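Supplementary material to the annual report.
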Amino acid sequence: MAESTKKKKKGGRKKSDAEMEVKAEEASEQADVSEETTDQEAIAAESAGDETTDEGDNQVAAPKRPDPDWQKAEKPDLSLDERLQGLEEDQLRQMMKDMLLARRFEEKAAEAYALGKIGGFCHLYIGQEAVVTGAVHAQTPDDYVMTAYREHAHALQVGMEPGVVMAELFGKETGCSRGKGGSMHMFDKERNYLGGHGIVGGQVPLALGVAWAIKYRKEERVMQVYMGEAAVNQGAFHESLNMAALWGLPVVFIVENNRFGMGTAWERASSLYDISQKSKAYAMPGRVADGMDVLDMYRVTKEAVDRAREDSGPTLIEARTYRFVGHSMSDPVHGVYRTKEDVEEHKEQKDPIRLFADVLDEAGIVSQEELEEMDDEAKRISAESVEFADEAPDPEPSALYEDVYANEDVNGRLYFDGRERP
Amino acid sequence: MAEITYREALNQALAEEMERDPDVFLMGEEVGVYNGAYKVSKGLLDRFGEMRVVDTPITELGFTGLGVGSAMVGLRPVIEFMTYNFSILAFDQVVNSAAKLLSMSGGQFPIPITFRGPTGAALQLSAQHSQALEAMYAHFPGIKVVVPGTPADAKGLLKTSIRDDDPVAFFEGEMLYNIKGEVPEDEDFTIPLGVAEVKNEGSDVSIITHGKMVHVALQAAGKLAEDEVSAEVLDLRCLRPLDTDAILATVAKTNRVVILEEGWPYGGISTTLTTLIQEEAFDHLDAPILRVTQADVPMPYAKGLEKLAKPSVERVVEQVNKVLYR
Ligand SMILES: Cc1ncc(C[n+]2csc(CCOP(=O)(O)OP(=O)(O)O)c2C)c(N)n1
Ligand SMILES: [Mg+2]
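Predicted assembly:
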């Protein structure tokens, strides 16, 4: 299938795209705490055979190293019109704006982190934008979204104010979690955004519970839960898939397979390479989406969301993507676990924003000029979010003991540190 | 008032709260068709149907997280652990989700969930099935811990726990399900959280305890009375919130304290109480605070060893005699 996929003409890149990449580069250089690139071969190359065997029901794919067109492996060869089907021009434009904002916002976050305005762990989404943008566009604002800690783009995608998201990163009182959550724990009840979870796989059973509540109340909503591919090895994932299928719950499990859990390549972590196949153990549909192609993400997720809404059935989606930056702001972009060339190659050939810009250009929907305007707008919003966060107040000391319990109207003592409340 | 068992009291509390609030549902292993491993949920499936009395696979982490997630969007789950020993598999969701979501979300997501099930040792169930884990739960801010020792307390406190907007870990004594006691029949009978109760008035020494150990303390008090020692038994009923006024009052009254708990001594409930009393009632003490806990070993199977490991009436009497310098 890889052969049949249209290759993009090289060298034909437009100025603003190149510019865009330079910026992304800058952000990732900042993230790079200068671990030297090693010439070490991808460990995966030796550890895995190339053959996929699929002989009968008992056979499953052997671990194998991704071929260069790994992300597109199961993508149907659709015409431009078919790819755009069901999407209005306005929505397509909005998708582009959303991806640009996600990119520019993260670049600003990287800058602020370098300046010490953001502390702790800070995991950027650069490179993966197509996943959440495509998937969230496939649902309605009444539906729920929950994810792990690589979540700034998810928060923005559900419509949270960029300033409020940035203020949370800055640990400010007017941040979405009042400065108690930070980068990994954003929440917005009003927008059905259920966080922001830091234990790998921990959000998956929670999402199951939300889907349970939807069914319990006979609502027509859908729960979208995201996780990194490393979460797939957790018991929580498997327990949740089992119950979701057993009870027919309206949940879409979206695995953002960016190939690495920190520095561990997927083929070094899973006996079964093809994540979507794991759904078979639970009699659940499993799908693969090209996580570098926002339209493919939309297509695959839409089908799953519709099924969840109509038949209350779950789906497992493996979104094959790639992160252009280090695991977190304190991790190297490349080094022992992946080569600089690998990262460069992805940035050059698979940048989801550039790929989508080409589609919109080809379809005559967004011109070069308009794209630049959109990008300027995304930069302006991101810069303003930093201004908002800069000016936002720190939490008062009295906030320390707030929101620990919802009901303190009890007899006796709830806190045992012997301190006066500020 | 009617005389019913601890088990029936819990069953009534569940049924009444499910009747009262359609958002309340019970989920756990064997709670439905089988009527509960300890028959606490007897008859509830027939009465409320399978969306509200839900048999789960053996998948503690999964269904506990499910409960917490459903509470995020406003349901009021009661999650039954067949015993608290198995809740250790679910502990990530208790600690990292239930206890922290309200705080991490800046107050947006209260988690009105109740965890319940039996705690502590029964008879010869050996190491993995004989643990009193209250201290482990009480360790975490964000969780409330309730430990009733009598049928009336079980009913009144379970109803309050289900109505409470925070995660409540409700510990039932595995050996208490059959004990009987007077329980008010009124459907509005509830007991507020954080109110301890003096189960036996006394003036010479205070035995502070909770849960199943209340009965051990009462027996010890009976024995001591034969010796003309007047022991006060304070039943905490809740560990978080904790009725510190009641604790400080009994210390001020008797000036001598023995703390009795079923769990282990290291980082146990008694450790926290000892700290509290020495910080806030040091001047009232006429003797060091002594403790009776489970032996600091995994519970052995052999009958004789198990008996040695568990807190006993004899050991309580012994420690009381020591604080009285008798
Ligand atoms: C239970 C648990 N173990 C370990 C960690 C530390 N940790 C944080 S992120 C991470 C890698 C996860 O990778 P993946 O799920 O693929 O998500 P990605 O970072 O690629 O988005 C690890 C090991 C954790 N947060 N939780
Ligand atoms: Mg990953």
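Chain B has two domains: 2-183, 197-323.
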